Amino acid sequence: MSVSLNPAAVIYARHLIQAGKIKNDEGHWREHNPDAADENAFLAAHEMSEYANWHLGLDMSRGEDTKGRYKFPYGNFRLVHREGVKQSTKIPISTQPSTRRPGLSGVSSGAGGW
With a threshold of 0.70, does the pTM exceed it? Predict the structure, then answer.
């Protein structure tokens, strides 16, 4: 499995952070990380492309319309969680030569002192 950066998710996460839709939940990501039931409920009401926006990684070996394609969630489908972003940036992601892995660090100054 080779996972690459999901640039659309990075853009979406930055938009949410700039809009103040963030939670500083240091050390509590396990409590907020969506489980399969949360994911299925979200998909029952939303398109797969919206689901994809909540995941920083893409497994291109999996089908575009499968949950397995989208890796490393960073929020709970409502808010960006600081710990979700931190956990995602610890996992190696292969990138294209023209794409660098931003880790969302460029938004830290406007995100409540992350």
Answer: yes
